[in-house]
Amino acid sequence: MPDIDKVFVIAMDCEAETVTRHLSDIAETTLYGRKVVTGFLNGEMCAVIVSGVGKSNAAAAASLALAAFNAKILLNAGVAGGLQPSMHVADLYEVKAAVQYDFDLTQLNQTPMGTLNEYQSPFLPLAVTGNFPVVILGTGDRFNDSPKDFELLTSTLGAGVRDMEGGAIAHVALRANIPFYSLKGVSDVAGSGSTTEQYLKNLAAALEKLAAAIPGFFAAVK
Fold first, then answer.
1. CA atoms of 5 and 206, how far apart (whole Å)
2. Backbone phi, psi, residue 170, to 5°
3. Quick one: pLDDT at residue 222?
4. Residues sharing a CB contact under 8 Å with residue 205, sequence separation 6 or more, in sequence order
5. What confidence category does residue 41 fall into, taking pLDDT thresholds of 50, 70 and 90?
6. Residue 37 near residue 47 (C-beta atoms within 8 A)
7. Residue 185 in contact with residue 199, Cβ under 8 Å?
8. Mean pLDDT of the 152-163 span
9. Which residues make Cβ contacts (< 8 Å) with residue 216, sequence separation at least 6?
10. Where are the domains of the chain?
11. Residue 84: exposed, middle, or buried by beta-carbon count in 10 A (0-12, 13-18, 19+)?
């Protein structure tokens, strides 16, 4: 595969389409069971790897971006659940830091919840373009309306949005010492009814708002 500096790692096909709709000279292939789309965005070559949902899928796809394309920058675009009552469906946020809120070594290491074994802080830093409001992202392998998770994410960790992939991509990028940018569109807001029902109702609107922002987001990534 050719070297490509900027590679998107995106969970679902519908999220990946927010990027691929803007590409020219598209080519599609499969690498280790994952769909990969390459093309030109704003005149610059990029790749999109569709990882699948969840942290292990995301980490594997991020590692594939490094191994297959020698990526210098990782990017992510997708939907996320809003955790703050002031948020609205289709609001866009950049992630300034991510935490894997379902990672727990507190009993062994006495480190705060979400702290990976090789670090002392639970928060993994991301790069930002400065063109969008910024939030902390909580990443975990579950989609639920658990009050316990909400309390951990908001009161303990200060997260503004949650997903199932971003923290894992951030981990790979940090270990590889390369920048990682993530742009999230809010698909549901905690406290506004069933997040599942909101997600299903609002997914298309959140994706359309996200798609409209992709060219400008990509252009601002350095």
1. 27
2. -60, -40
3. 85
4. 89, 90
5. very high
6. yes
7. no
8. 97
9. 131
10. 6-215
11. middle
pLDDT (mean) for 191-209: 96
Query: Are residues 171 and 116 in contact, defined by beta-carbon separation less than 8 angstroms?
Result: yes
Burial class from Cβ neighbours inside 10 Å (0-12, 13-18, 19+) for residue 33 reads exposed
pLDDT confidence of 195, banded at 50, 70, 90?
Answer: very high
The pLDDT value given to residue 1: 82
Residue 175 has pLDDT above 90, yes or no: yes
Phi, psi values for residue 103, rounded to 5°: -95, 125
Mean pLDDT on 168-183? 98
CATH of 6-215, one of 3.40.50.1580, 1.20.140.10, 3.40.50.12280, 3.40.1280.10: 3.40.50.1580
- What secondary structure does DSSP assign to 20-32, as a single string? HTT-EEEEEEEET
Radius of gyration, alpha carbons of the chain = 16
Query: Distance between CA atoms of 60 and 79, rounded to whole angstroms?
Result: 20
Residues 142, 54 contacting (CB under 8 angstroms): no
Residue appearing with tokens 């400008």: 216
Q: How far, CA to CA in Å, does 94 sit from each of 66, 75, 197?
A: 22, 11, 24
